[in-house]
Amino acid sequence: MENVINSVRNYWNIRPCNVRHSKKEFLSKEYFSEVETKKYFVEPHILTFAEHNKWNKKNVLEIGCGIGTDSINFVRSGANLTCVELSDESLNICKSRFKTFDLKANFYNGNAEVLTSFLPKTKYDLIYSFGVIHHSPNPHNIINEIKTYMDENTEARLMLYAKFSCKALEFFILQGYKFGFNYHKTIQYFAEAQLDVPVAYTYTENEIKDLLKDF
């Protein structure tokens, strides 16, 4: 399974998510501002889901921060943020982003499936992960790990891919023949804009309930 984790890490190291959303000078304020504008234009629902300004003076743990678009908005809103990211290249860009805007957070480079092996055990007000956990070979391991960082007041906001979304069904209808109409292989291939991500799980409502049954 370590080989799969390495494949996932290498995939996102080669092309961190959203890194091509701007052609401005790389790592400049203009670059990061354009990346943010485009991300929230394409996915405006993230702003409603995250509610960044709700977490002022709260402790937030973000699993899979990528290049830090949500991350920096949590901190701008006054949150005390801890970021965890598997891809060292993505995390380096995220760190550069915070430095560019003179903001601070805690950064950890590691596999969230073994979160307790490197992240100090403390409680968070929010555990946030958008579009990340389903790209890990063992999502249930991440779910089990984050429980260590929760108490009765912690809120977890986790976005996972829906198995029968309109987008997924469209890909299957139009492109499924390329994969012998194997639904999982079709959706895995088209799950991300850069195509052929090593791991991409999808979930029905009942499967998510089962994944989160201990919460």
Structure description:
This protein is an alpha/beta fold and 215 residues long. It has two domains: 2-159, Rossmann fold (3-Layer(aba) Sandwich); 161-215, no CATH class. It contains nine helices and five strands; from the N terminus they run H-H-H-E-H-E-H-E-E-H-E-H-H-H. It has a five-stranded parallel beta sheet with strand order 3-2-1-4-5. Helix 7 crosses helix 8. The longest helix is centred in the first third of the chain and has 14 residues, at 29-42.
Give the gist of this structure.
By secondary structure, the protein is an alpha/beta fold.
What key phrases describe this protein's structure?
five-stranded parallel beta sheet, globular, 9 helices, Rossmann fold, 215 residues, 2 domains
* Side-by-side strand order of the widest sheet: 3-2-1-4-5
- Classify the secondary structure makeup into a structural class: alpha/beta
- Overall body shape: globular
Question: What is the count of structural domains?
Answer: 2
The helix/strand order is: HHHEHEHEEHEHHH
CATH architectural arrangement of the largest domain: 3-Layer(aba) Sandwich
The CATH topology of the largest domain is Rossmann fold
- What's the alpha carbon Rg, rounded to whole Å? 17 Å
From the N-terminal CA to the C-terminal CA, the straight-line distance is 26 Å
- Which percent bin holds the helix content? 40-55%
Strand content: 5-15%
**Annotation field: number of helices:** 9
